[in-house]
Design goal:
Strand content: under 5%
Helix content: 40-55%
Radius of gyration: 10 Å
Largest sheet: none
Number of domains: 1
Shape: globular
Structural class: mainly alpha
Number of helices: 2
Distance between the termini: 20 Å
């Protein structure tokens, strides 16, 4: 799976729980989403209109 599929899911999880965590620390999903958005840029159109 690529960022185009995973980022919208991660943003939705963060919308429900802003401090959702992965395996590292509380809130690490936020860091992963921000890094993914920065790397993907406009190549992930599903994020338009979503608030992170």
């Amino acid at each position: 799976m690529g960022l185009a599929h995973l980022l919208p899911l991660a943003v939705e999880v963060r919308r429900i729980n802003p401090l959702a965590e992965g395996d590292v620390y509380e809130g690490d999903l936020l860091a992963a989403v921000l890094t993914g958005v920065r790397r993907s840029g406009p190549s992930v159109p599903n994020l338009s209109g979503m608030s992170a």
